[in-house]
## 1
Amino acid sequence: MTISAERESEVAYPDPTPPHAGGIQGWTSRPGWLSQHLGTAIVGAVAGYLIGHWLGNVIASGYNYVANSGVNAIANTGGLLLGALGWLIGIGALNYPLAKMVGMEPAPEQETTSWTRYFRYTADHKVVGLQYVIGVLLFLFTGGLLAMAIRTELLSPTSHVFGPGTYISIVSEHGTMMMMMATSAVVGPLGNWLVPIMIGARRTAFPRIEAFSFWIFSAGYLVILTALPYGGFPTGWTGYAPLQTQASGGMMSYLVGFALIGSGMMAAGFNLAVTIVNYRAPGMTWSRVPIFVWSILATCALLTLATPTLVAAGLFGILDHTAQTAFYVNEHGGSSYLWENLFWFFGHPEVYIMALPGFGIVGEILPVFTRKPLFAYKVAAAGMVGVALLSFFVWQHHLFQSGINPDMRPLFMLTTELISIPTGFIFLVGMGTLYKAKIRFEVPMLFALALFFNFLIGGVTGVFLSDVPVNVTVHGGFFVLSHFHYTIMGGLIFALFGGLYFWLPKMTGKTMNKKLGQIHFWMMFIFFNLTFFPMFIIGLLGQPRRVFEYQQNLQALNDFSSVSAFILGSSFLVFIANFAWSIFIKPTPAPPNPWNSLGLEWQTASPVPYYNFERIPVVLTDPYRYGEEGAPPVADLGEELVGAGAGPRAGTSTGETSATSAE
Amino acid sequence: MTDTTTTPAYSETPEEREFELRASIGSYWTGGRLFIGMFTFLLASEAFAYFYLRSSNSGQLWRPRNVTAPTGIGWSIYAVVLVSSVLVIYGQWRMRRGSVIDWEVAGWTAVLGGLVALGLQIWQLTQLPFYPGSSGYASCFIGWAVMNIMMLFGATFWIETVLARSLRLRKVAADDGPVQLGGSPQAQIFRANVSACTYFWGFVAVASTLFWVMFYLI
Ligand code: HEM
Ligand SMILES: [Cu+2]
């Protein structure tokens, strides 16, 4: 029987989903100010913080972990943890688990087009995606302001704006915020918004876990901000013991904040991984899955499996400060290397969490603007999976200089150099797609091309770093700093902006201004390179990271870098102006498919209906068949069938489609 | 406030309903396994800490005088967890053979067992013969206790929600037979959830065994 024949017996429901027996109408979907929203979350967070702080003081009054610091680590931690809990209760994250305890399932969410839905706990993955857009940008710009402060201090080798303690707190806060943000920078906004639509799904597998991921991510943002009023922390983003153990106030914000962000990463990765495996539309075989979805799947594997180690490491650190265990205290039977190992066992997969989604984005953008199929699609997908697997076996390359057994060094040097092979494959896929192509230089494409330029520099310097003799001379200096800014900022953040220019028209229905986009791009691209390339030289000339004084003869290079950094920073003002103007102040409606993409996400209606597709699409081919005469459409969306009988899908037999969906 | 509450035009063909059903059953399957994978990495970090500190024995302070956490309580926790897991697994086996009541009794007993084990685990923390920071062993033990509380809480919560759901569904799905056996979509999804939960309890038993060996036997 053909699908069209099946479809004639369609059943219409008054509710968006078949009614659940014993459902609860979640508070979140009840309209009006009396329901739960951002406001109640803030009230909950403040109340939770005060209660936790008070409780901590009751349990352990006058208890100073660090002598004379005046900070009671128990009250401090109690406040942060209960504050986060209050935030989650306030937004309504606990309604559902509690209802489950009495056997209820949530009733279908009422669809609403009111703007207030962006301030609520919602099961709509598109709303969560846009919440993440704002959350990630806020995170990025807060961290960016701190970067401006760092570069201001480094204008002069000897005369200072900040004291040494303040300076290291600013550096630590900057690094930590940026790393936290980057873990979710693409998975959060674009992953959540796009993946279900790209695979032809009407929903995600666990929408409330997805919403949870956003609200705990934002709790992590608030918690890491508290590090500054608590006096900051001196460890940098890597949190090394024994400094970690000796540090006071702000260190708890680091540990609790990372644990919260980690929980968010696991939740987001869990939901998307399960969705990709189970909700691919009929016909969406593994060899037709868009490359962005592959990159997210590989990232999700890392998010779910590497992040628990970070959470465990953070838990041990919290226990060291509060219960006074000695995990990281050498003198009491612990070991500071334990932190270093746990942290980097997570930390290196983490760097690929920050790389793979970027490659996924450019993998989608290149074919559209070259009108060519993605070159060697299968190699790209395999490369992503290969990178994800290998990334668990290289972490010791961060510890070459920390006294590890010297015999271990060649091994980890080898694994690190091995991982550059699949990474190189992904790079070559991009080059192959560009080869002999007629390129349309639209704004998203500019960002995609910049990624390849930047990542080449970032990746090659990584191979230098993996070489133990080279590593001896440059470890702990500006060379490393520059390496990872080239990969993370030059790679992931460029890709993120490319992705935003590319997909925001679909996500918001509004077009970003092209002129402003170009100005943003060129400022960002030129001054990113002018900021960070000198840092390679600065590093080779011996300037260490995280130190606020440096050799006199390096001032010229540092000043050059600082001034470039200020212009780089202001390039984001252009983006913010463009974003505010084009989306909120003077919205220009976007055409349904402005770039003429074949991707499935562009084929559904605009604005995308609550359930994404009127009919679950039947996928007919991969989305990269550009420039091919007579290529079939990517999917049969089924709409035309409602009245018109058999369309192009008449030939597709149900047997075939159900076989693929049962995989 | 004009928060709109329009009902979306949403419809499903029988084929789409079948697709959604299979996807949600599959999600429980994949999600259950992935959840175990995540917990494995969490506990592996604890095990890594244990063996790392044990082998480095810094300051000869891995485990001075071979201190051990209270064995009586420790063995009781282990025994209760093991019995509860066996009950959950056995209960599902009986359920699949049509004996709904066996599953329910076994399940609620496991809930009780989980709560008892949680209580014992918390109580044990107040009875330690060592200070948390006195040795590597002591620190690792505290770490394990916290993770064990998380794990037992999760397992107990999960089985409780499944049991509560079955009670609630008993009233509504009567014409399809009990939800544990029926053929309705709801019943199929329910059983996928039970099966994922049972799997997790099996994992809890294995993990408890390993850490019991690590902290009380070797
Ligand atoms: C071709 C692949 C790569 C290789 C061979 C490589 C190699 C290395 C090595 C050996 C180090 C240690 C340097 C040291 O501290 O002495 C390092 C540091 C680092 N890499 Fe890479 N890397 C690669 C790609 C990436 C990517 C894709 C990212 C992120 C998107 C990244 C982010 C980082 C970060 C954040 C650090 C420094 C962490 C810190 O000390 O704060 N790397 N890399
Ligand atoms: Cu690394």
Note: Confidence is low (pLDDT under 50) at residues 1-23, 25-29, 640-663 of chain A.
## 2
Amino acid sequence: MPKKEWQPDICNEKAGFLFSHACDRQPAANCGNCDKPICKKHTTRRRDGVTLLCTTCTKEAGAEDTGRGSSYYDDDPYYYGSHYYGDHYYDDRYDRRSSYSESRRNDPRDFTEADSESLVAEADGDFENDMSES
Amino acid sequence: MAFDEQEFQKTLTYLSDDAPETVLADLEAIRQFDQGQEEHLAREPGGCGWYLLVCFVCFIGAYVTAIIAAGTASSSLEALAVMLLLVSGAAFALMVWNIIRSVKFSRIPVFDLDNRRYELATGLVRLAGADMGADQPLAMQVDFREHTHEDHLQRRGKVGHWNAEFYVDQWLQLEGRLVDGTKFTIRLIEKQQERSRTKRGASGKLKTKEKTKISSEAIVSLKFKGKRYPRAAEQSATIEQYLKLPQWTTLKSVDASGSQLTLRSTTRASWTAGAAEPTEGDSTCDGVQWVAMMLLSLYAMLHASK
Ligand SMILES: [Zn+2]
Ligand SMILES: [Zn+2]
């Protein structure tokens, strides 16, 4: 397999929880399999306790090698999505510059006050009116 | 701003507007704080009953032995009486010391937090953080006060023969923006009915029965960028086909209007979060998994809307 050219000084892993996207963290290591620069969050350790793998290679190595991805519930957000969506994990290929600059411009909380009030105040019909004697 | 334990003890509410990493560090500090409190509780001084019993029995023993010793002029019985008196005195001293410790202990306020709250909060920040920029702020609020805090009381009423108090506790709110521009809000609500009823039993005595009913609700809202998901309006007509929730939860409503999706589900199962007590088989009701599946369900629709 021809070696890919990795971009230096930035984590090159694209795995996310709900969709894949560029990672903006500093790399802490290189993947022991594909040599990709990876941040701490995107690093798992092979069963041998020494080799570090990126999220993509961890998924490919499977449960036997890494103990990851065997059960539906794995504490790691990067493995939830592929269990839920199956093998064809969605790749959005969000361009790093455009998506980050766009998301920084806005306040994260522009759901209006009214939105949140209406959600909470709305009565829970089932429970509020649970008049069963049991 | 770093987590302020003193301030937290006053309000028992965690508020933050920081990057995911900072919020995770704060939640870890809350976990440490709670573990310290739990260890403190485990060191509570024991009861004084045994000391009182030993003190009493030895004192009576000493008295009786002394009377017999006086009658028989036996010096060994006299020595025994003195010894019993000494044991009785020592037990008395230990009892007093324990009472002082108990009083001191009860003066230190103890906050035993519900572990589920910081464990679930941690799990959710980790999930959301995976799709956020490293320095994007997360607006988070976690209320650790009791369900039955008076601020959560909605109303008092009757349920059949029962007197009931209805509490609604929105204890978690998490808001932020993902790298695709979607704004998310996650809310967790605990609804509780405290029921009690007093009636006269067959013997004529008044008896009070109490019970509690609890239901948890999770609400996930997404406000997405229409231009990223141009077919969302068309897909939202069949949004239900994308919903996949844990079996122990019930879908309450799903609402798609414009560029906003809101999914609500409830459960009466007692769920756990984090490295909770091990349970047998697959019977674990994992709270993080619950919210994760709600988010994944809504995103399944968005992925189909491109
Ligand atoms: Zn790799
Ligand atoms: Zn990374």
Note: Chain B has two domains: 5-43+114-304, 49-107.
